[in-house]
Design goal:
Layout (H helix, E strand, L loop, with lengths): L1 H59 L9 H6 L3 H17 L2 H13 L3 H7 L5 H13 L6 H5 L7 H15 L16 H10 L8 H7 L5 H14 L5 H6 L6 H13 L5 H8 L5 H14 L5 H10 L3 H13 L3 H7 L7 H11 L5
Helix pairs in contact: 1-3, 1-4, 3-4, 5-6, 6-8, 8-9, 11-13, 13-15, 15-17, 16-17, 17-19
Length: 357
């Protein structure tokens, strides 16, 4: 019995020592990791100061007036330092323009950082590939365009988006060739980036846009419509008008906005004619267009929508449009009708608070 007791105590003692050892190992591991993280953060902080000082010097001084920076030169061959330098240069490039931006790009070329960015295109980690494309684009490394173009069909959104943007950044309108074949949705944010990067549309590329307006990818059509609005290409008006029959509601809403932007004397009449066949979302877009148009030809139509359409949203937009088209007195007269429902009275009062555009 005593032997069993001694054995049990010995076993418990060994188990306790094992647990204590494990806890101590975990504590040491956590402390080691924390110390390593602290050391790394201190190193990055010091390197960032060195790099920022160098960038400031490059921007402020002419090349032949640059003061010696031995500390920067000493670290300039370290791979980790160069990765941080590339990251900071890319971020800095976004903050400056003109001569300062060009000097930052010169620093990129001087230290041959393009090879660091190109290495990232060969990595397996997707975020590194996207970062490499972004860096090459920001530094205007247009010689890398052919390699970046290989990622236009990459199955990871941030990567192919950066590749799309790079093509347009390097080539202008010609860089939009990917619209011929892309099957992925072009996000609102991406469309904005691409639109801001296009400064002109060559006339000999109009056929490209006609083709894009026939795309099975709705976002390609929407982006093309926005291009047409931005550059006010009136010759596309008849083609755009036909898209009011497109199966996508979002496309048709953009068609309405584009028709209004390229407006001619028959625009509102065309919208009124197409109105009955549209879903409510598109009808509301058409009523908003009528508010802005100032075209009096739709007044009777708006009155019809105000009194006969059962939907409150339609009634509100019709009343607002009448007000903005200068028919305030008509609305004031109608609000006196005691036979009106409480809902319609509230709609009229709301519309009368509307400020003219």
């Amino acid at each position: 019995m005593i032997l069993i007791f001694i054995t049990s105590v010995h076993f418990l003692f060994l188990a306790f020592l094992g647990m204590l050892s494990l806890v101590l190992l975990l504590i040491i591991a956590v402390l080691s990791y924390g110390f390593a993280q602290y050391t790394e953060s201190v190193r990055v902080f010091r390197w960032s100061e060195i790099i920022n000082k160098k960038i400031l010097e490059v921007i402020v001084y002419d090349k032949d007036e640059l003061p010696p920076n031995d500390t920067f030169s000493a670290f300039s061959h370290d791979s980790s330092f160069r990765d941080l330098l590339l990251k900071i240069l890319t971020n800095s490039e976004r903050k400056f323009s003109g001569v300062a931006k060009n000097k930052i790009r010169d620093l990129f070329q001087e230290y041959n950082l393009e090879k660091e960015a190109l290495k990232k295109l060969e990595q397996k980690k997707k975020y590194l590939i996207a970062g490499g494309i972004q860096e090459l684009t920001a530094m205007h490394a247009d010689k890398a365009a052919s390699k970046i173009s290989l990622f236009l069909t990459f199955p990871f959104t941030p990567v192919y988006q950066e590749a799309q943007y790079a093509m347009v950044y390097f080539k202008g309108f010609d860089g939009l060739d990917f619209l011929d074949t892309t099957t992925t949705k072009i996000s609102e944010w991406q469309q904005l980036r691409l639109l801001l990067s296009i400064s002109d549309i060559p006339v000999d590329h109009y056929d490209n846009m006609k083709k894009w307006l026939e795309s099975t990818n709705g976002s390609v059509i929407i982006f093309t419509l926005r291009l047409l609005r931005k550059f006010q290409i009136l010759s596309f008006y008849p083609i755009i008008l036909k898209l009011l029959d497109h199966p996508s509601i979002e496309v048709r809403k953009q068609v309405v906005q584009t028709l209004l932007s390229l407006e001619n004397s028959s625009t509102i009449k065309s919208l009124v004619e197409a109105y009955p066949e549209q879903e409510v979302e598109v009808q509301l877009e058409m009523l908003k267009a009528m508010k802005i148009s100032k075209d009096q030809c739709c007044v009777d139509f708006l009155k019809e929508q105000l009194w006969e359409n059962p939907l409150s949203g339609i009634k509100i937009n019709a009343a607002e449009a009448l007000f903005l088209l200068g028919h305030k007195e008509y609305l004031l007269q109608m609000i006196k009708d005691e036979s009106l429902s409480e809902e319609l009275i509230q709609i009229l009062k709301y519309a009368l608070q509307e400020k003219p555009c």
